[in-house]
Amino acid sequence: MRKILFLVTVLAGLGSMKAQELNATVTIDAQQTGQPNFQVFRTLQQQLTEFLNNTTWTNREFKNQERIDCNFTLIITGFESTFFEGSLQVQASRPVYGSIYDSPIYNYNDRQFSFDYSEFQPLVFNINTFDSNLVSVLAYHVYTILGLDADTFSLNGGQEYFDIAKQIVNTAASSNFTGWKATDGTQSRFRYNDAIISNVYQEFHDAMYTYHRLGMDLMESNQTEAKQKIIDAIANLKNVNDRRPNSYLLRTFFDAKSDEIEAVFSGGPRVDINSLIENLNRIAPTRRSNWSNIKL
To answer: Which residues contact 33 (CB under 8 A, 6 or more apart)?
Structure first.
């Protein structure tokens, strides 16, 4: 009887444990180094996967089905001893209500990426210190993903996570690694975060909520209204673009969303797309090939 009670207690405890926030996949491509089969790359991939998926990033409770799907693709272009150089492609998505479709929310190509790493070294994140550029870059992208995901479910829901990402930027700015300072160019982690927490870009957050919660999540029940909400969201982004043309924040948004927008407006019930096409061509002219395929 005691064994049965003990088992019930253990199972109840497991059921109440807080699931981690991410369902992250890590891929390491080291072909450009000429030594892609080095054991250190396999170890690094395993350690990064465990770090991303097993770290508790928030105080929220995530059910297993609520974990955020994301991909981290690390392309190593060169290394010497314990110093590595390359780029990091980060992608994330969120589920659409009433479907099996995941809507992309983040597609960031981090080209300013180098780090020191010794095989099997512990990967530990501390918000108050800069110990590892590898850990800080990953944590920055994690909190940006958490913020964008929260923005799609509630208006301004991601603010606390963007603020944490800002703290990471501030702490890392004292290092010699690039991507953390205002002087590191227009396509940096600093620039992206600086925009996403600025009041000048408030309509970006409005658009994220309208596009996903009032648009994509409504597709199951009312496609016409859902499409109109997405048109409204794009109009909000046009207002942002009028103030900050060709901003890195909006370019990154369309890196994630161009194919989806084309697909949404290339089938289903007809809506007036004249203003939509005009706004898309103004905001993201490099995606004209996508916009020209919208024929409804």
So the answer is: 76, 77, 78, 79
